[in-house]
Amino acid sequence: MWKKFSVLLALCMWLGVTFAAVDANKATAQELTQVKGIGEATAERIVQERSSGAFRDWGDLIGRVKGIGASKAKSLSDGGLTVEGVSYTSSTTDTKKESDVKKEVKDKK
């Protein structure tokens, strides 16, 4: 009985996480605002930057969207935001410093 209950509980938790994820490359501005920590202005900045091309990874999102740094990215990821289906970890931004990523993006513009 306990084994079945444990399996059912694990399945429910997995489904909850799966359906709660919002991908920065696919979500509308309205869907993005459902993520804790993303207001209307940030959602619009994400959608606007995405119109220039999909975000390759978290480092790309951090570099292109004003107001999102490493700590904010971690918070947004904890709230359900993903980039290409991947949650944020410090290793997902590569080994580059956040300031270096932002400088590269600025130089490309």
Instruction: Please give the order of strands in the largest beta sheet.
Output: 1-2
Strand content: under 5%
Helix/sheet category: mainly alpha
Rg is: 16 Å
Signal peptide: 1-20
GO biological process, one term: DNA repair
InterPro entries: Endo/Exo/Phosphatase_dom_1 (IPR051675), Hlx-hairpin-Hlx_DNA-bd_motif (IPR003583), RuvA_2-like (IPR010994)
GO molecular function, one term: DNA binding
Explain how this protein is built.
- Residues 30-49, 60-79 form the Helix-hairpin-helix DNA-binding motif class domain.
- GO terms for molecular function: DNA binding.
- The chain has 109 residues and is mostly helical.
- The protein has one domain.
- 56% of the residues lie in helices and 4% in strands.
- The protein has six helices and two strands; from the N terminus they run H-E-H-H-H-H-E-H.
- The chain has helices at 2-20, 29-32, 40-50, 58-64, 70-78, 98-108, and strands spanning 22-23, 81-82.
- The radius of gyration is 16 Å and the shape is globular.
- The termini are far apart.
